[in-house]
Amino acid sequence: MEERRYLNFNLDHGYPVGKGIYYECIICGDVIPSHPEEGMGCSCRNIFIDVDAGRVSIKNESQFKAFEKREQKGG
């Protein structure tokens, strides 16, 4: 089972990136890793990560969330 802890961050300091951090597009519902091995984006292209340029592009920041995914232990 997965637990999402949504992150509050200051856009002036950039987007959060790291292992276990994901981006969620509110428009299409896609979830993508913040640090993929290859460039990728959500289905509606609101979020795109250009790995070669080291750049995250978000068209509509009000339709974007970042979260940390943690696995919960089943009981």
Layout: helices, strands, pairs:
Layout: E1 2-6, E2 21-25, E3 31-33, E4 40-41, E5 47-50, E6 55-58, E7 64-71
Description:
The chain is an all-beta fold. It has one domain. It has no helices and 7 strands. A 4-stranded antiparallel beta sheet has the order 1-7-2-3, with no helix packed on it. The protein has a 3-stranded antiparallel beta sheet with strand order 4-5-6, with no helix packed on it. β2 and β3 form a beta hairpin. The radius of gyration is 12 Å and the shape is globular.
List keywords for this structure.
single chain; 75 residues; mainly beta; four-stranded antiparallel sheet; three-stranded antiparallel sheet
Count of DSSP strands: 7
Report the biggest beta sheet as strand number plus sense, adding barrel if it closes.
4 strands, antiparallel
Give helix % range.
under 10%
Strand content: 35-45%
Q: Determine the structural class based on helices, strands and strand pairing.
A: mainly beta
Distinct helical segment count = 0
pLDDT averaged over residues: 92
* Rg from alpha-carbon coordinates: 12 Å
- Spell out the helices and strands N to C: EEEEEEE
Number of domains: 1
| Shape annotation | globular
- Are there runs of 5+ residues with pLDDT below 50, and where? none
Largest sheet, spatial ordering of strands: 1-7-2-3
Spatial gap, N to C terminus: 10 Å
Summarize the structure in short.
With 75 residues, the protein is mainly beta. The protein is 0% helix and 41% strand. It has a 4-stranded antiparallel β-sheet, with no helix packed on it. Strands 4-5-6 form a 3-stranded antiparallel β-sheet, with no helix packed on it.
